[in-house]
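Colleagues,

For the teaching module next term, I've prepared a clean inverse folding example: a structure given as tokens, and then the sequence designed for it. I'd like students to try predicting residues themselves before seeing the answer, so please don't circulate the second half yet.
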């Protein structure tokens, strides 16, 4: 019955997509229909050499289909998801099927009201960010109401309330808040005339969660030496920010604060949380510069205090590390330490040497250098908390333990652990009209114990060459050679890729990732891709290495897999 319903709904959506258009209702009113279909399928095979996990289902799929109707004063939409036999590596509650996302939106000149599911972000997301990231299995949308108003020039107000989606359920906590942004330059013509733009923002979020969960501080010696911790029903978060832009220069300063929020993430301590960030950038023709610093402490915020994993986060802390797209450069990705806290820094310089110069050559040369460093914060553990009981027994928990204030922390002082560091140097060079070469070197330190639980510090050097040759207007061949050198973990890795593009719509790809160190294993893959307008179909076969898939500092562990893959995407 479920399969029949799935295909009927998918067929209905595809049929509407085939006739997607702007529909006129009367002389002056139009409705535009848009949407998409995405289906990723794996026919799994067992492979003891790479350690695939047993799978009962013969076919695994993550399938999404959504449709939106938009008009001048009214929008509506829904998403159907079929995840009853999900791809490997998602949390158990991810499994299911139905229509978990739907909304209606009313719009007038200076305001809009949304009822149903919606995504929202205040500032950089330090106290509120709801979003969808299908590769990670994240959809933490809110279900409730949101109003956005622009009552005056340069003024934007947001107010919202709702319960957060957790897979096929919603957490009980109510998440409510408001955001105010002021475009100061909109009121001062002198700022506009000088090309100066200043935006000030302030946000507030309240998380109301009943203290129904029985959280205990545990003692020793007698069976009665337990005490139920008192959980705050209201957790309040505040955010202040200022963004200044002047010509090619911009600077963003932001600070967020959170009241006591004992949770499983922080071992149920009563310490307050905060995050401070400073980000500056400068760009002009041929050059760009980015400098960022962030200090966070105990800022894990979920709509259910007992949750772990990647679900139920109300907020988001960017990692301040470069998002890597090459296979070996992305092998050891960093995941933000929400509860532990961290000092994070990032600097990036991009420069393009002009044509017909010594370093630019005939076609010019682009160079980019990126440096990221993430360190632990300083923590001092002083004091203690004593629990007394009616039978005369008592026990004492040192500061830092469950039920205490946690720890002290000097703002500017580092802790003893380096979590992550990398230095990237990339060179893009066009050598002829037909051939373009990209080179990259990466020096990386990855604290596997901190990020994954064990493994120690991994130090690696990564070398990458990526070349593209255009034979003619129809055929283009791209190749990659990558080498990761390390004495740690599983030792050295090699990676090779060939990709042939045949216009207008075909692409053929073969690749192999080989561990020449501890395992002596090959992870080979082959794909055939066809694109036609808004349609994209890909058929593949091969092995996938166990590891972490990350986006923006949030990571999901993906187990090893092998088999036939089929992906289909359609946007209308």
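(Answer key — instructors only)
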């Amino acid at each position: 019955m479920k399969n029949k319903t799935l295909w009927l709904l998918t067929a209905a959506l595809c049929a509407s997509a085939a006739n997607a258009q702007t529909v006129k209702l009367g002389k002056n009113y139009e409705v535009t229909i848009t949407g998409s279909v995405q289906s990723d399928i794996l026919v799994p095979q067992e492979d003891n050499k790479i350690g695939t996990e047993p799978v009962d289902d013969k076919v695994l799929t993550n399938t999404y289909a959504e449709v939106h109707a938009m008009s001048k004063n009214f929008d509506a939409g829904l998403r159907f998801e079929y995840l009853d036999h999900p791809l490997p590596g998602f949390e158990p509650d991810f499994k299911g099927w139905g229509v978990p996302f739907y909304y209606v939106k009313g719009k007038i000149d200076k305001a809009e009201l949304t009822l149903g599911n919606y995504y929202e972000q205040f500032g950089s997301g330090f106290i509120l960010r709801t979003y969808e990231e299908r590769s990670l299995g994240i959809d933490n949308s809110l279900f409730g109401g949101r109003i956005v108003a622009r009552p005056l020039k340069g003024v934007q107000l947001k107010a919202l309330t709702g319960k957060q989606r957790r897979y096929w359920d919603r957490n009980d906590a109510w998440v409510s808040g408001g955001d105010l942004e002021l475009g100061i330059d909109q009121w001062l013509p002198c700022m506009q005339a000088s090309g100066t733009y200043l935006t000030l923002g302030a946000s507030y979020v309240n998380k109301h969660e009943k203290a129904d969960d029985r959280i205990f501080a545990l003692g020793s010696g007698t069976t009665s030496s337990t005490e139920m911790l008192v959980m705050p029903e209201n957790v309040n978060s505040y955010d202040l920010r200022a963004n200044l832009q002047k010509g090619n220069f911009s600077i963003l300063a932001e600070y967020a604060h959170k009241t006591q929020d004992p949770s499983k993430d922080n071992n149920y301590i009563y310490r307050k949380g905060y995050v401070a960030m400073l980000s500056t950038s400068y760009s002009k023709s041929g050059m760009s510069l980015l400098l960022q610093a962030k200090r966070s402490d105990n800022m894990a915020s979920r709509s259910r205090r007992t949750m772990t994993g990647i679900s139920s986060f109300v907020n988001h802390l960017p990692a301040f590390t470069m998002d890597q797209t090459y296979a070996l450069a992305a092998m050891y990705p960093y995941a933000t330490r929400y509860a532990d806290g961290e000092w994070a820094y990032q600097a990036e310089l991009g420069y393009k040497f002009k044509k017909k110069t010594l370093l630019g050559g005939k076609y010019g040369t682009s160079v980019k250098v990126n440096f990221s460093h993430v360190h632990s914060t300083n923590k001092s553990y002083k004091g203690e908390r004593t629990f007394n009981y009616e039978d005369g027994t008592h026990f004492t928990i040192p500061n830092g333990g469950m039920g205490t204030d946690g720890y002290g922390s000097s703002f500017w002082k580092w802790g003893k652990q380096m979590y992550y560091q990398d230095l990237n140097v990339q060179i893009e060079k066009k050598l002829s009209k037909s051939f373009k070469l990209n080179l990259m070197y990466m020096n990386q330190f990855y604290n596997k114990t901190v990020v994954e639980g064990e493994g120690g510090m991994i130090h690696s050097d990564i070398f990458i060459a990526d070349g593209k040759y255009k034979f003619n207007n129809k055929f283009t061949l791209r190749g990659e050679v990558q080498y990761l050198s390390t004495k740690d973990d599983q030792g050295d890795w090699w990676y090779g890729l060939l990709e042939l593009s045949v216009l207008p719509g075909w692409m053929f790809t073969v690749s192999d990732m080989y561990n020449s160190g501890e395992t002596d294993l090959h992870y080979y893959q082959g794909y055939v891709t066809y694109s036609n307008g808004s349609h994209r179909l890909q058929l593949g076969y091969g092995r996938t290495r166990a590891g972490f898939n990350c986006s923006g500092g949030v990571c999901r562990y993906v187990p090893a897999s092998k088999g036939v893959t089929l992906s289909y995407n359609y946007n209308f």
